[in-house]
Every structure is written in C-alpha cells, then in structure tokens.
Amino acid sequence: MPTARQALLDAALRALADRPWRAVRMVDVAALACVSRQTLYNEFGSKGGLAGALLHRAADGYLAGVDRALTAPAPDRPAAVALWTVRAARQDALVKALLTGHWAEGLPRPDRRPGSQGRTGGRPPPAPGELFALVRERLAAASPEAAGRCEIALRLALSCVIVPVPGDDAADSRARSASSGRRPGRRPARGVEGRPGAGQAGGRSQWAEPDSWRPITPMITSEIDTSFSVETTSPRKTMP
Asked: Which of 3, 84, 178, 236 is exposed most, by the fewest CB atoms within 10 A?
C-alpha cells in the first residue's frame, strides 16, 4: 500500500497531466490523494518542496533504470543504458528535462536557492551535468574495460534525447546499437509516445521540441548514423 507521500506525488503527477504546473493547486493535489491539505504541507512544506520531490523521484527512477540496464551481459551494457536513456526521456517529460536542462513551460522547475527544497532533503535535484556524471560513474564501475565505449554510447543517447527525429522511432534502434557497431535497420515511423501526464502548456505539448532545434535535427541524425556504421566485423577493428 503506498504511503501518504507516494500517494501525494502520484496525485501531483495526475494533476500535472491536466494542466501546467503553475495552475496546479495544493488543495487539488490533496483532494486527488484523499488526504487533508495540512498533510500535504506537513509532508512537503510548500509547492516548491512538492516540485523538488517530484523531480527527485524522476531522477531516482531514471538512475534505478540505469542500474537495471547494467545487469545486462558485459558487452551489451553501454547499449542497454543508452536505450534506457532514450526511452526514459520519451516516457517522462521530467526525466527529459533533468537530462537536457530544457524545461517546457508547463513543467515544475528546480529551485536551487539554499533552503528552497522544503522537506525533500535540503538539496535540489541534480543538474544535467551532475546526472550525466552519476550515470558515467555507474557505467565505469560496471564495465571499466569499456569506459570509452560507455562514454560514446551515453553521449549518443543524449544527442537523441536532445534532438529527437520528428515522427521517427528509430532512435531506439540507434541507441540499442550504440556499442555493437551494427548499423540499425529502419523501423516504421510512429508518433512519439509520452507518459500519461506529459500534459499541455498553452496548447503546446510539453514533449514538443523547441522550434530552434528543428533545423539541426537532420544534421545530428546524419552524424549519429555515420557513427553507428563503423565497421567492426574485423577482430582488429573496434569502436574507440
């Protein structure tokens, strides 16, 4: 049975599914969780504290997925983490924001002022560089012999997250092939699937990539395809 804290965080995500964060009211979150508003304030202190807890949970969930990916066989670990990174960012707009630092208008934002986190542990959620470092440390510890490949796979996965291919689900297969050297096959185009609760902000999906990214999307895609097409059939050839 979920605790009151878990129920309140789930309720906050449901509220965020219907409206931008600025329009989410604490009283509505408490009602969705079937607890008193005082219980909500006792748990998080303020709306900023609730936002910080949501972002911490998103970061922790992403890192837990990284740890699961690292249980794959050793040669497949970099690709498994890369694939999880792309999928997690697609499924959760909060994870995408934490990884990229791009906060869509309707999302809660981290407040990094001292003491602003209320009852979330007194620390802000990790910045993109900090989150990247946490993942890199896990990869290096799990596969020290493939540190270079791990770095490449993770950076390519983040490039797919930052500049997704509009209407194309091929990023999953690119990430899966990040450490194998195999050129991924094309898959039928599909719409990007967001998690329930991705929400809308001013008529624009919180998943929508900024217009300023669109002109460089083909360039990034071409670069990624080139990187994944490195010939590795010879035992003397390996990706750097």
From this structure: 236
> Tell me: the pLDDT tens digits for 8-51?
999 999 999 899 999 999 999 999 999 999 999 999 999 999 99
What residues does each domain of the chain span? Answer: 1-44, 57-186+206-228
pLDDT category of residue 113 using cuts at 50, 70 and 90: low
Q: Is 201 helix (H, G, I), strand (E, B) or coil?
A: strand
HSE-up of 4 (CA within 13 Å, CB side)? Answer: 13
Integer CA distances (angstroms), 56 to 86, 126, 130, in order? 19, 8, 13
Distance (Å, rounded) from C-alpha 79 to C-alpha 81? Answer: 5
**Position of tokens 């992403």?**
62
Tokens 């804290």 locate to 5
Contacts of 39 (CB under 8 A, 6+ apart): 4, 8, 30
Q: Mean pLDDT for the chain?
A: 74
Q: Rounded to whole angstroms, how far apart are CA atoms 96 and 48?
A: 20
Comparing C-alpha atoms, which of 159, 142, 169 is closest to residue 80? 142
Confidence grade of residue 165 (pLDDT, cut at 50, 70, 90): low
Q: Looking at domain 1-44, which CATH architecture does it have?
A: Orthogonal Bundle (1.10)
